[in-house]
Amino acid sequence: MKFSETKLRGAFVIEPEPHGDHRGFFARMYCANEFAAHGLATHMVQSNLSRSALKHTLRGMHYQVDGAEEAKLVRCTQGAILDTIVDVRPDSSTFKQYVQVELTEDNMRMLYVPPGFAHGFITLRDNCDIFYQVSNFYAPGRERGIRWNDPSIGIDWPTDAPVMSDKDKAYPDFAH
Questions:
Q1: In what helix (H) or strand (E) does residue 35 lie, and over which residues does it extend?
Q2: Looking at the annotation, which residues are catalytic?
Q3: Which of 21, 24, 124, 156 could form a disulfide linkage to 80, CB 3.0–4.6 angstroms apart?
Q4: Which of 6, 176, 154 is closest to 88 using CA atoms?
């Protein structure tokens, strides 16, 4: 696997290195030793699958607080998404900055999201499946969110009219 750190400290784009022949290919998608060598969480407690039927479905921007912070390893297994993370660590030099990475079934890239980041994505095609692992259990009372178009962050989304849940639409601007 190839690990490339983004401009946000601790967040990595991870690219598999497929080895192929006439049958297809083999690619390692996770190795605790390689993750540990890059200082990344190696203990994932839950795996999730998100399916979105429509292009421009936006899910986010979610994070957890008060000891429930979680690392995430995100991969699009069908379709294409623009995965987006915002650094919400108050003491970070990149506080309130964001990065976006296109994850597709074809490029097989993954995004490692460290604890202390808000996370969301928007689908770029119909019928997208997103598989992600998390390092901490979901804690409803510690869940937080940021409005998808908070002007103080200024995320550049590919549409002004995303398909969203009422819950995600109701998140406030970031208060820090």
A1: helix 32-37
A2: 62, 132
A3: 124
A4: 176
| Domain boundary assignment for the chain | 44-169
Q: Token pair 């820090």 is at which residue?
A: 176
- Residue 61 belongs to what H/E stretch? strand 58-64
Residue type, 38: H
d(CA 165, CA 60): 9
* Sign, Cα dihedral of 90, 7, 27, 34: negative
Give the C-alpha distances (Å, rounded to integers) separating 37 from 24, 34, 92.
29, 5, 22
**Confidence at 175, pLDDT banded by 50, 70, 90:** confident
What pLDDT shows up at residue 153?
Answer: 96
Domain covering 44-169, topology: Jelly Rolls (2.60.120)
Please write the tens of the pLDDT for every residue from 122-169.
999 999 999 999 999 999 999 999 999 999 999 999 999 999 999 999
> In one letter, which amino acid is 174?
F
Predicted TM-score (pTM) of the model is: 0.95
On whether the CB atoms of residues 158 and 82 are closer than 8 A, the answer is: yes
